[in-house]
Design a protein that fits this description.
3-stranded antiparallel β-sheet, alpha+beta, 3 strands
């Protein structure tokens, strides 16, 4: 799984599926997460 910031950094090179927000240790609010399905070659 990857965070929203990583998803944004990958741009259109990444194929992802949105996951339900998760409770992450050390985070006050649930974190938006994505499942990385694949990467496009550059």
């Amino acid at each position: 799984m990857i965070a929203a910031a990583t998803r944004e950094a990958l741009g259109d090179d990444a194929e992802v599926e949105a996951m339900p927000p998760i409770e992450a240790k050390g985070k006050r609010d649930p974190v938006v997460a994505f499942r990385l399905v694949g990467l496009q070659p550059r």
